[in-house]
Design a protein that fits this description.
370 residues; TGF-beta-rel; seven-stranded antiparallel sheet; 2 domains; secreted; Cystine Knot Cytokines, subunit B; Cystine-knot_cytokine; elongated; growth factor; disordered N terminus; 4 helices
Length: 370
Amino acid sequence: MTSGMMIILLLLMTMFLRTGLTAIVGFEAVENHLLMKLGMNRRPVADKNVRIPSATMKLYRAMLEENTMTTHFPLPGLHTSSANTVRTYPDQGSVPSNPKSQRYRLQFDISALPERERVKAAEVRITMSFDSERRRDDEFVHILVHDIVKPGARGLSKPTLRLMDSKSLRLSSSTSESQEISFDVTPAMERLSETNFDENHGVLIECVTVSGSRTRLIDVFDFRSSAKPLLMVYTDDGTSQRNALADVTRRTKRSADEPKKKPKKKKICQRLPLYVDFRDVGFSDWIHAPQGYDAYYCHGECTFPLANHMNASNHAVMQTLMNSINPLAVPKACCIPTKLRPETLLYVDDDQKLVMKTYPDMVVDECGCR
C-alpha cells in the first residue's frame, strides 16, 4: 500500500470517527435535555423487574381515554386541578404478626420532591378483602386513616395522630369480597413536603364497628395479595396547561391503527406523520409506557397567495405578499405548529420511583404559516 493510499485511508477513518463521535455527543445532548425536562439529574438505571401497579396502569389508560387538551388527571373528588405528575410509592411496612391486631401502620419510602413541584393531592389505595364467614348482614365497618404527626414511645407516651379521612362500609351478603378503596391523605403530604419528608412516620389505619369494638385487621384487609397498599402523590411542576375548550369539548379519540395519510403532492404547509419509537432512541428501558407515540411535524411552503386552509396569521399574509414583490428583501413565512397537545409518559426516575407525568406540547395537532 502506497503512502498516498494510507493517508487517504487515515483521513477516511478520522472522518468516520468524528462523525460517529458527533452523533454520540448529539444523542447524549438530546437525552440530557429530555431528562432535564423530566426533572431528573441522570439517566435511570434500568430494572427489568419493575412492577407497575394496576392502579397506576388504570390511571394511565384513563388519561388516554380522557383524550383532552389538558395535562390534568381525571380524578373527581381530588384536588388535581393543576397536577400533571403522579408518583407511586408501595407500602414498605411489615404485615401485622398478631392476628388480633386492630391497627396497621403504612410506611412509604418518600424522597424529597423536585424543587419546583408542589403537592396538590395524595391518596392511599388499599385492597380490602372481607371475610365472608365473619360477615354479618347490615353491619357497618368504619375505616379511619390517621396522619402520624409524632410517634409515641412504648410505655411512655401515645402517638400524636390527626384524622385525615374515613369510610363507612356496609357489609352484607352482596358485598364484594375484594375491592380497592381510596383514602385522601393530602394533609399529611402537604405537611411533610415542607420538611422534604424528613419527619415521615407513616399513616395509621384502623377499623371500628358501630358498636365501638375494633374489628380485626385480617377480617378487612387483604394481606395475602401481592397488591400492596399504594400511596399516590399528585404534584404540579409549573408546566401544567389547560385549554379553555377542553372543559366542554373532547378531541376525537386517537387510534394506533389509524391509517397514515400520505403527503399531498403539493409541497404546501401541512402536518406530516412522525412516529417517535422509544426503542429506536434507547429510552425503552426506563420509559415503560407508551412504547412510542405519534408526534407529527410541520413541513411545506407558505406560497403566495395563502389559502384559508393554510391557517395563516395576518402577519404571515402580509409577509408573503411582500415576499412576492421582493423575494430578496423579505423571506417567506414559515410552516410551524400552531396547535399542540400533551402526551402522558410512565417511567422510572433516577431514584427508581415509578412516575407518571403529562407533558404539554408533545404532539402537533395543527400546522400553519407564521
